Backbone:
């Protein structure tokens, strides 16, 4: 391993437009699909879940993962790695040992559930791992660039360590997992074994659902074990979880230090969100195509509060309902029906998330561009819109629904 | 899949596998034995090898052929170098097949004659290894039987805790975990020890000639032709003379295994093909390393030259007494040669 340039085995770091195009997944869509029968269209509708539209979060995650992997590979190429291999062997044999190598990168990716953090991480890993295994000919060097594991629900250290071994076996056709089970080793020895294997075969480890440590009595121990793994293996570790894990990491400095990283919230209403909705709205499998407009986008934001998974679910389920009940159109009514019938469990979460500022809608988002320059005030009252509708002799409700989400309530 | 690390130059095969064991992270030796050996209960042979699994062979072949392993990473050159041609070829074939019968064919001292041995290391070589490679390993040249001096650094080799015998439990002990970082080398070595060690190590590294049919005992005898150690015709050895000078020459050499005349004669009789013993005799006789490698007998033996000279002088008209005076040799011997009554 020493004196081998592992970094050159990595694919190139992508940036800008190239990165966007590489990250993007847009399943093929043929507008003729609308002429197919319901069953075909319902199956094709699942393509909505395959769509991946890169945003700032996904680009940042990709760059951070790539650089963490680079750092880890540079450490493996050093002579210190050989010394650490032998130190780990002492640990496994119950002798005194030291961590010579030190950890590489360790950071968190924290975002609310449904924001797409796991999707972004998985997509970034797939992009980096164009080769499933980095190999150097005529040597024992086989490195899995990224290993993705889930934090066990009970924060079991043994569970996590065995899972890492299992993933390695899957990629490298080895038998570390079965042998670790047979050995019935203590956790200390298992940490030594996994450190050794990770040092030789892993670039970086991504631990998803790290928030599981919060409500578990083993949580601190698991983080401690991961810290030990970082120090003994010299690999990078990325912890992915929801904001509730932030409270956990704030408890102690050494935890907080390891958890510096990327923090995201739901998407703000803006260009990115609009672009996302516009791209997704192109995938219509109902017979009557609807063009997306400002009203629909705002309605979607209102109901999702920027949570992209909810947007996807709304667009998917509304089309599903439309196909099943024969309405064959995606409009605010169908979206609303999907929201009421299919996403009822999320209503309380969404309303909690609602920001008061969504009640104030910026003028430029409401008024068609040709009249934008006539207005100076950034905000407008609903009464102004009603007045305008009357002046133009239009139905108020219909007029308002072009600019605002309108909910009809039976009195 | 078995991912063996790259072997180091002159690394013992056992050491190579031990480093693999370290890298696997396995908690027990049994697991690596299952990966490497057909019989996981086998005790790894520190000087050669045991029957390996197909996966292990594939792992080896990523770096070299099995033939290269035998020549460059086992002690085969030590134990087979001076064997007779057929026995050498048989030992090689058995070792290549990983048939443990090679133990009976190679010259390996066992039983009462064999002392307990441990894997040895040179503290300075270990230090250099750690600087260059990040870890040390078991060098072949440090395991030569009888040699306890490092030919490179001229310091005393140190015994480790890894015993080379069938007594200890099976395991693969890596040098990096056994050789301590501390410890100063012992330079209390005589010049003779250094020269002998260098000579033997040089011989050890030379390629083995499988085609040479000359027995080493016969060759060493021929190396004494025209010296005081053989009779006039060169056919008989003067063992008392040889022994006296040999023991005197090596009186400063500690642990000289050849302390009896019969032991010394066994080398000439081809009964003792031990590398160390043969090299001691060769070094004493002034045979160079290259000469010992080629082991070329003189084109015309001393006896033939003697006989030819007698006949030549006789043809010139000298009588046997005159020939004996001319050649400063025994009259009786000249007569025997003249009458054709000698071998």
Residues:
């Amino acid at each position: 391993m020493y004196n081998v340039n592992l970094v050159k085995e990595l694919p190139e770091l992508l940036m800008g437009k190239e990165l966007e195009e590489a990250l993007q997944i847009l399943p093929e869509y043929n507008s003729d699909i609308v002429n197919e029968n319901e069953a075909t269209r319902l199956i094709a509708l699942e393509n909505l879940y395959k769509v991946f539209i890169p945003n700032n979060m996904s680009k940042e995650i990709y760059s951070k993962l790539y650089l963490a992997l680079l750092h880890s590979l540079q450490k493996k190429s050093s002579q210190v790695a050989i010394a650490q291999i032998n130190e780990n062997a002492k640990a496994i044999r119950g002798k005194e040992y030291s961590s010579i190598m030190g950890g590489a990168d360790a950071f968190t990716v924290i975002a609310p559930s449904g924001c797409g953090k796991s999707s972004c991480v998985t997509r970034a890993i797939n992009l980096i791992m164009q080769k499933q295994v980095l190999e150097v000919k005529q040597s024992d060097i086989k490195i899995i660039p990224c290993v993705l594991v889930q934090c066990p629900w009970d924060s079991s250290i043994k569970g996590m360590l065995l899972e890492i071994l299992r993933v390695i076996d899957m990629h490298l056709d080895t038998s570390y997992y079965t042998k670790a089970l047979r050995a019935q080793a203590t956790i200390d020895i298992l940490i030594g074994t996994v450190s050794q294997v990770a040092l030789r075969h892993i670039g970086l480890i991504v631990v998803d659902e790290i928030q599981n440590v919060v409500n578990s009595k083993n949580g601190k121990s698991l983080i401690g074990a991961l810290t030990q793994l970082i120090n003994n293996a010299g690999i990078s570790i990325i912890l992915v979880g929801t904001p509730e894990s932030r409270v956990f990491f704030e408890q102690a400095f050494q935890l907080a230090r390891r958890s510096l990283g990327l923090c995201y919230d739901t998407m703000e209403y803006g260009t990115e969100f609009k672009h996302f909705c516009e791209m997704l709205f192109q995938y219509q499998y109902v017979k009557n195509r609807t063009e997306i407009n400002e009203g629909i986008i705002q309605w979607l934001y209102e109901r999702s509060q920027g949570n992209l998974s909810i947007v996807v679910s709304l667009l998917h389920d509304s089309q599903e309902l439309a196909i099943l009940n024969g309405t064959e159109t995606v409009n605010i009514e169908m979206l609303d029906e999907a929201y009421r019938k299919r996403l009822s469990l999320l209503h309380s979460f969404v309303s909690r998330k609602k920001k008061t500022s969504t009640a104030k809608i910026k003028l430029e988002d409401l008024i068609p561009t040709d009249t934008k320059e006539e207005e100076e005030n950034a905000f407008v009252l609903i009464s102004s819109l009603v007045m305008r509708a009357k002046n133009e002799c239009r139905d108020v409700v219909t007029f308002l629904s072009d600019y605002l989400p309108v909910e009809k309530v039976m009195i | 899949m078995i991912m063996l690390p790259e072997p180091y130059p002159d690394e013992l095969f056992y050491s190579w596998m031990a480093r693999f064991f370290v890298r696997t992270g396995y908690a027990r030796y049994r697991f690596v034995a299952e990966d490497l050996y057909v019989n996981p209960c086998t005790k790894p042979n520190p000087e050669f090898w045991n029957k390996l699994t197909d996966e292990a062979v594939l792992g080896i072949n990523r770096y070299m052929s099995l033939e290269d392993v035998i020549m460059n990473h086992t002690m085969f050159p030590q134990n087979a170098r001076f064997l007779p041609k057929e026995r050498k070829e048989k030992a090689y074939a058995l070792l290549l097949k990983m048939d443990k019968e090679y133990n009976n064919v190679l010259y390996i001292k066992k039983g009462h004659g064999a002392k307990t041995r441990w894997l040895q290391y040179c503290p300075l070589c270990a230090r250099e290894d750690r600087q260059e490679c990040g870890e040390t390993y078991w060098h072949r040249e440090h395991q030569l039987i009888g040699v306890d001096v490092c030919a490179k650094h001229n310091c005393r080799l140190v015994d480790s805790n890894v015993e080379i015998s069938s007594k200890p439990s099976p395991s693969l002990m890596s040098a990096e975990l056994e050789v301590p970082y501390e410890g100063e080398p012992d330079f209390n070595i005589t010049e003779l020890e250094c020269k002998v060690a260098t000579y033997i190590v040089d011989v050890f590294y030379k390629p083995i000639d499988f085609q040479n049919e000359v027995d080493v005992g016969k060759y060493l005898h021929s190396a004494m032709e025209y010296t005081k150690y053989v009779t006039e015709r060169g056919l008989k050895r003067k063992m008392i003379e040889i022994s006296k000078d040999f023991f005197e020459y090596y009186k400063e050499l500690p642990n000289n295994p050849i302390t009896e005349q019969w032991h010394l004669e066994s080398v000439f009789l081809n009964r003792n093909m031990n590398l160390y013993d043969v090299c001691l005799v060769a070094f004493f006789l002034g045979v160079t390393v290259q000469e010992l490698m080629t082991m070329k007998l003189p084109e015309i033996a001393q006896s033939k030259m003697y006989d030819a000279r007698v006949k030549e002088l006789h043809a010139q008209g000298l009588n046997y007494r005159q020939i004996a005076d001319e050649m400063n040799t025994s009259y009786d011997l000249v007569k025997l040669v003249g009458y054709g009554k000698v071998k």
Q: What stands out?
A: Chain A is about 50% helix and 10% strand. The longest helix of chain A spans residues 56-76. The mean pLDDT of chain A is 84. The interface with chain B takes residues 1-2, 79-83, 85-86, 88-90, 92-93, 95, 138-140, 142, 172-176, 179-180, 182-183, 185, 189-190, 192-197, 200 of chain A (CB under 8 Å).
